[in-house]
Amino acid sequence: MAGHNTKKDAGNPILKRLLSSNLTWSVVALIVLIVICTIFDHGFLSLSWNENTGGLAGPLITMLQESARYLMIATGMTLVISTSGIDLSVGSVMAVAGAAAMQFLVSGLNVWLAILLSLLVGLVLGCINGALVSMLGLQPFITTLIMMLAGRGLAKVITAGQNTDAGSVAGSEPLRWMANGFILGIPANFVIAIIIVCLVGLLCRKTAMGMMIESVGINQEASRMTGIKPKKILFLVYAVSGLLAAIAGLFATASVMRVDVVKTGQDLEMYAILAVVIGGTSLLGGKFSLSGSAIGAVLIAMIRKTIITLGIDSAATPAFFAVVVIVICVMQAPKIHSLSAEIKRKRALKSEAKAVTA
Amino acid sequence: MTSASTTAVKKTAKKSRRLDAQMIPTIAAVVIFILMLVMGQALFGTYTRLGFFSSLFIDHAYLIILAVAMTLPVLTGGINLSVGAIVAITAVVGVKMTMAGIPAPIAMIVMILIGMAFGLLAGVLIEEFNMQPFIATLATMFLARGIASIISTDSLVLPEDNNFDWVSAEIKIIDNPKISNDLSFNMGVVIAVLVVIFGYILLHKTRTGRTIYAIGGSRSSAELMGLPVKRTQYLIYFISTTLAAVASIVYTANIGSAKNTVGTGWELDAVAAVVIGGTIVTGGFGYVLGSVVGALVRSIIDPLTSDFGVPAEWTTIVVGLMILVFVVLQRVVSAVGKKE
């Protein structure tokens, strides 16, 4: 009897850790969605080699291609949220960066210069957010809401209200490759996104940066007392978020070489927040998981792919997402945790009682 | 004795000045509204016409209702992002029902009920599952918008002789022979005024209102004082979302059609109105009447920008900058208040 118990205890910790990790549930959800898609469309997992593009082709690959932009904005959003802030402007910054890049290309600018300048535009918008939040002490929610409104307007001003199309501009291959190309058969934008996520992760976890960001999120005043400069950290996270959103904007527009000033990046701030929440980062700040957000971002792309594969009307997408958010948040709620703990406790009591009677 | 009375006087004097300081954003909003009117009148000469006021109120009655709806959660430091989507789903359902020959009063009741259901859902998510108001109402926003899109993505037009007319039928008070100079209103405006009065009484004359301000000041303190925080939170999101359904009735009756994309971005307009009106976004301070002024400022931007020939794409930038100015003003005022 005793031996049996110890055996069980020894087997439990790994399983327990796996079960309690948000990461595990995200991966499980990802696998479930892939299985569902495969059932509906037997060719879902099939991969083929496309000679023309020099890369793999298949439904999963297009999913990865789409996930690159979510990876970028989710990474920026993770850092911002862990300082107990929020960046609602990522979608609009994407549109501005995309509009700038397309407009620069159409006006005959060198492609590398166009990429650089549009990234700079995103960085500047992020810096404005950062300056307003850190120096003026404005609420992140309101500050980035303003940037969300103004940024959408700015994108329209840049293109004079047109949906600028740079598809016919010669010499834009590097930008096209960024969105549609392949590295060793894997979508280039996905590889770039993963590299950037890893870089940010290294910067946060191999240096004290991540801890500083978290401490600002827990208590700004206390972190200042311990010698961290919260204002600098706040400025930095918003600037990084702006820059990453600009990269996402390039991914989104370069895949079709056309910016849609209304639709580019629309609702993407919501997807980014969703990816972060799925990844287990607390919206209250003070704790973040970049790998969780990364999986969350891929999961978002997978959900969208599932909707398309299942042939659900695209109009229903928001409702589908809402159900996912509600389910995930309800699962994470303390009430559910205490409820399951309660059930476990009762079970343990019962078995104990049984043991006693036996 | 004398010293005590003087300190008391000093205290009240200080208190009243402090209150004044916190009212500056609201006063600024009123001043800006008047300045915009004067500027419009000086440049275009149509801004003091009775007809202008009539259409300003008739066209933006829905925004005034939404501003009141948004004031409640913002006062507690929360937010209700679902108002725009609630307008969409209730409008689509209401018009669809009327098209199917269901009498308008029943359609309206169903619209209100849908609003109530979503408000209750938001309340449950926030209070029972500890979701942040931001995320909870984001979820209900997606849900409402998605269901509206599933029901129909077409532009639905109210049939002729529908009984929505009584809301939008214009009632003329002063019938001016000159064109566009009639002073008129419709039931939509009356409903908006009633909603404002309701909001004013709720916030300033009832215990619930006092609890709302207390939650905004500090939720844990309010709980420790034994105030019914949970019930009040339920009530806030319930009322807020139901008012969005009321706004939907007014708006739908006015324009006579509905689409699943109606109300996109209105939550931002409502937040803008609330912030311009002097409500502090961290909660605990603000007025319903301030939000009404904010809604009017937001409304008058539309005719101004079109008269100035500002390209439509600049409108959002102007609105964004205006909110920024007001938020910075609030920040400065509160910083000055703290120093004193």
UniProtKB/TrEMBL annotation, chain A:
Enumerate the CDD domains for this protein: TM_PBP1_transp_AraH_like (cd06579)
Q: InterPro entries from the xrefs?
A: ABC_transp_permease
> Which UniProt keywords are listed?
Cell membrane, Membrane, Transmembrane, Transmembrane helix
Topology versus the membrane: Multi-pass membrane protein
Q: What is its main location?
A: membrane
A GO molecular function held by the record: transmembrane transporter activity
Record field: transmembrane: 23-49, 70-99, 111-134, 141-161, 181-204, 233-256, 268-286
Q: Could you tell me the superkingdom of the organism this chain comes from?
A: Bacteria
Which locations, inside or outside the cell, does it occupy? Answer: Cell membrane
Which terms in the GO cellular component ontology are assigned?
plasma membrane
**What is the protein name stated in its UniProt record?**
Ribose/xylose/arabinose/galactoside ABC-type transport system, permease component
Annotated source species: Bifidobacterium pullorum subsp. gallinarum
From TrEMBL, chain B:
Name of the featured protein: Inner-membrane translocator
Top-level lineage group: Bacteria
Q: Where is this gene product found?
A: Cell membrane
Q: Its Gene Ontology molecular function terms?
A: transmembrane transporter activity
Q: Which GO terms describe its cellular component?
A: plasma membrane
Q: Which InterPro entries match?
A: ABC_transp_permease
Transmembrane among keywords: yes
- Give UniProt keywords alphabetically: Cell membrane, Membrane, Transmembrane, Transmembrane helix
Which positions make up the signal peptide? none
Q: Highest lineage ranks of the organism? A: Bacteria, Bacillati, Actinomycetota, Actinomycetes, Bifidobacteriales
